[in-house]
Specification:
The chain has 602 residues and is α+β, with helices and mostly antiparallel strands. The chain is 35% helix and 24% strand.
């Protein structure tokens, strides 16, 4: 280590050697621990599945049988397995060696960090509402969810500890971590603890949430006299491993065994280069198709193309765009001027608009009438070339030139003050709705605007598989200047700056589910727009005052909406339902038939 003193190295080496040698040591440890209250065949229910403590099982056959008892849609984990090869020999077709590493933090030498959380704080999970939010974060991270009642009923469980990170301003839950006290869970003679289910909301605006949660849990167990804190992390999770290395964790030689199931299928079937190359928008659909036994063939992973076959029917897709969407519908969505005329004729409210080819007098008059306008290319996607909140003729001319980089035809629209709403309509029914919010940075009193934007972009990119980041371009500089700052200024701590006016995911925006809060008028507008275009799968964008109010204006329709952005709503399920109605599980079909009959009777 750079800068390490020569005299410190023997002590550090001794400490690492001690860590590697510590922990459960098979039969010898069990024999010693019998006097210390080590439970036999100890299992702890964690809601998402069970922790099966391998060192408490004298007979590997009993441990294998315990893993065979895994419930549906659950993920049991056998931890602290010293001899995985022996355990696997008792159920080689059912169990597999999890490709994860075990890391340990020596709590006797751990020292708390100097930086306090900024913009959020860490506290105990305190309500069923907290539990619901934790599940939302689990869902966004592809983790197994827990019934909210489990968290609440186990709030006094001395073996389990739940912490959450809460935004100081909004009260939103931003992250979560679970801790297990070894002695209380299974009478651990080593007096250890472990960390599980560390998860941060991919939309979280603040840096360092994961580190703060880990430190809080470590300090919690340190205060209770625990000797160490262990965790299991996937071998290729470089970002997490980097954090654990930074905090002083050291790798130890314990292994994790799991039962083969649909949840962890990728871990034991081996890598599939074509499948791994799919982006999140294609993968969510392929995953749903495979769950139903639909044959999937990746045609071009980089482009998001795949072919689905079921019951003699084959459909070629590019993410959520399929052969069921006609070329005519695509051409309507592609040209925003045509889209506007079509939906306006169907009674959908649209904003006032003029052409970017208008003369200066007409543009100046349009700005004076509306105060602020939007300039956008007539063709394009993902928010490219769009400028929002234009207030002067000079800004308009600059924005028009930027928009012409993406389309020769440019549109000027009245700026509707409100929020950007994306509604997913599949088979002319609303499936999901989400507010899309523009990227915002929060000053820390030390970093420049430029650095804060770069930090935000790194977090958004990591959270979305590289799909989201804030462009460092003239539009971002204009928005920062409009807020009263330059790119190299250092904003005061707590100062919030909106660095883009567009809320598209691909320009750093965040997405917040509001499906349960949508006013019927907004649903009717979205369905009417989809029917006017005659498009079976679409993302309808509206500007609104509030999801609960009827006020709106139509912005555009997207022929290939990103379904992965709307979890936990069943967007992929409804998409596959549309393509292959007979693949819908019988119980679901029966329930829908019953609902239709009930509505007719009413």
């Amino acid at each position: 280590m750079a800068g390490e003193k020569e005299a410190d190295r023997p002590h550090r080496g001794h400490r690492l050697e001690k860590l590697r040698a510590s922990g459960p040591k098979g039969s010898a440890a069990r024999e010693r621990a019998n006097q210390d209250g080590l439970k036999k065949n100890a299992i702890l229910d964690c809601g998402w599945g069970r922790l099966v403590f391998g060192q408490t099982f004298a007979d590997p056959r009993e441990l294998a049988n315990s893993l065979r008892e895994e419930g549906p849609d659950r993920r049991d984990i056998a931890f602290y397995v010293k001899d995985p090869h022996v355990l696997l020999s008792h159920a080689p077709q059912e169990l597999f060696l999890d490709p994860s590493h075990t890391y340990r933090l020596d709590l006797s030498t751990y020292r708390p960090g100097n930086r306090r959380p900024r913009g959020y704080f860490i506290r105990r999970l305190a309500s069923e509402e907290d539990a619901t939010e934790v599940n939302r974060i689990y869902q966004s991270r592809g983790m197994v969810q827990v019934h909210p009642a489990f968290f609440w009923t186990n709030r006094d469980n001395r073996a389990l500890t739940y912490f959450v990170a809460e935004d100081e301003t909004t009260g939103a839950i931003l992250g979560t971590v679970t801790g297990v006290h070894g002695k209380r869970a299974f009478g651990d003679p080593e007096n250890g603890s472990s960390l599980w289910c560390l998860a941060v909301d991919p939309q979280a605006p603040h840096p360092g949430i994961g580190e703060s949660l880990v430190r809080r849990l470590a300090e919690h167990f340190q205060a209770r006299g625990c000797a160490f804190m262990d965790l299991s992390v996937m071998h290729d999770n470089d970002q997490a491993i980097g954090l654990y290395d930074k905090l002083g964790f050291a790798r130890v030689s314990y292994f994790t065994i799991k039962r083969k199931n649909e949840i962890n299928e990728r871990l034991f079937t081996g890598p599939n280069d074509e499948y791994e190359g799919l982006n999140p928008y294609a993968r969510i659909i392929v995953d749903e198709a495979r769950r139903r036994g639909i044959h999937t063939e990746v045609v071009d992973a980089a482009g998001g193309f795949f072919r689905l076959t079921h019951g003699g029917r084959t459909v070629l897709c590019r993410e959520s765009l399929s052969e069921l969407t006609s070329a005519v519908a695509m051409s309507i969505c592609d040209d925003k001027m045509v889209t506007r005329r079509m939906v306006e004729a169907a009674g959908v409210t649209v904003p006032e608009q003029i052409s970017g080819d208008s003369d200066d007098a007409a543009i100046a008059a349009f700005i004076e009438t509306h105060g602020q306008i939007v300039v956008k290319p007539a063709r394009g996607e993902q928010g490219r070339g769009i400028s929002v909140g234009i207030e002067t003729l000079a800004e308009a001319r600059t924005a028009i030139e930027a928009a012409r980089q993406h389309s020769p035809n440019v549109l000027l629209e009245a700026c509707f003050q409100g929020n950007d709403l994306r509604l997913i309509v599949i088979d002319y029914r609303l499936v999901a709705a989400a507010l899309r919010k523009p990227p915002v940075i929060t000053g820390d009193g030390r970093s420049s605007v430029r650095d804060l934007i770069e930090h935000l972009s790194r977090r958004r990119s990591a959270a979305t598989g590289g799909e989201s980041k804030v462009p460092m371009d003239a539009e971002t500089e204009r928005c920062v200047k409009q807020a009263g700052f330059a790119m190299d200024d250092v904003p005061p701590e707590g100062e919030r700056i909106t660095v883009r006016k567009t809320a598209n995911l691909h320009t750093g925006g965040t997405i917040h589910d509001v499906t349960g809060d949508i006013h019927p008028a907004l649903v009717e507008a979205a369905v009417a727009a989809a029917r006017a275009i005659e498009i079976p799968v679409t993302g309808i964008d509206l500007m609104i005052k509030s999801p609960a109010l009827a006020d709106y204006v139509f912005i555009e329709a997207n022929e290939r909406p990103g379904l992965a952005n709307h979890e936990p709503q069943p967007t992929a399920e409804r998409f596959v339902d549309l393509l292959f109605p007979l693949s819908v599980p019988f119980s679901v079909r029966a329930a829908r038939t019953h609902q239709k009959r009930s509505r007719k009777e009413d």
